[in-house]
Design goal:
By secondary structure, the chain is α+β, with helices and mostly antiparallel strands. Helix content is about 20%, strand content about 30%.
Length: about 300
């Protein structure tokens, strides 16, 4: 059972759609059989008010099936336990309701008959994720034991993850640390925000180059919260260039944010040997970077 305390006045079907990250039609179906407001049944046109308590009983999610799909994957390393892949721009990591094809998982299923099952049938092999329009390195587990060990390294902050980002504005400090907890945005459930009651989130950064109106920086993660880098940089008023969600700045094009997972290091799940990988910035990033180079 799940409970929500309403924060603003809105139609209940719209409110549930935003807060549960489901379609409005799916929300309407839930309201028929699985939803009470202050202990009473309501219609999907009902207007919820601030501090109303919505109770959602258990329900069966739509079945999601991930199917193999032939695609070009940029694989940097592979053995019997792990794959390191350089994810392309615009590629969603795993299937979800309404988006079951053309994801990294679809390509991995076609490429390999062996992937871990720890994260369920529609997320085989996926130990950690990056956003669709963030490019760069991910580690994929090929069996459950490898998945367990790699996930533990992530949770214990024993992996090395370095990102490159182009951000709006000139950062004066050469280095810095953003230590600010992150949780779900109460006004927009599809976004994250810095919140006092959020989960610990720590991001370190170092300036690589300053431009007239932007800064190229290197970032290292201690934690891996959803949208962490984008939320933290927006929090210090230096949002990622071309980010369509955070920062509300003019978009340069539709290729997605200038954020790249450049380096990834971890101990091999079987041998214990430390392994580290790097990949170059993609064209979508360098093409935007050139525009700022021309302004110097």
């Amino acid at each position: 059972m799940q409970e929500l305390i309403v924060t603003n006045e809105e139609r209940i079907d719209s409110y549930l759609s935003k807060n549960l990250d489901i379609s409005r039609s799916k929300a309407s179906k839930l309201i028929l059989d699985n939803v009470l407001v202050n202990g009473k049944k309501v219609k999907n046109s009902y207007i919820v008010k601030k501090d109303d308590k919505i109770t959602i009983s258990e329900y069966q999610e739509e079945e999601i099936k991930a199917v193999p799909e032939a695609m070009d994957l940029d694989i940097l390393y592979e053995d019997d336990d792990v794959i390191v892949v350089n994810k392309a721009n615009g590629m969603v990591v795993h299937p979800a309701i309404g988006n079951t094809n053309h994801t990294l998982v679809n390509g991995l299923l076609y490429h390999s008959k062996s992937l871990s099952k720890n994260n369920g049938e529609f997320r085989p092999g996926i130990v950690h994720r990056i956003d669709a329009y963030t490019t760069g390195l991910l580690m994929i587990a090929k069996n459950d034991k490898a998945h367990e060990i790699l996930a533990k390294q992530l949770s214990e902050k024993k992996t090395y993850r370095k990102y490159i980002a182009l951000v709006w504005g000139v950062i004066n400090n050469d280095t810095g640390t953003i230590d600010a907890p992150i949780g779900r945005d109460v006004n927009d459930r599809k976004k994250m925000a810095v919140k006092a009651d959020g989960k610990e989130a720590i991001t370190h950064f170092r300036v690589l180059k300053r431009y007239k109106n932007a800064t190229l920086i290197e970032l290292r993660l201690e934690t891996g919260r959803t949208h962490q880098i984008r939320v933290h940089l927006n929090y210090i008023n230096h949002p990622v260039v071309n980010d369509p969600v955070y920062g509300k700045r003019k978009l340069i094009d539709d290729t997605g944010q200038c954020l790249h997972a450049k380096a990834l290091g971890f101990n091999h799940p079987k041998t214990g040997e430390y392994m580290e990988f790097e990949c170059d910035l993609p064209d979508c990033f360098t093409n935007i970077l050139k525009k700022f180079e021309e302004e110097i």
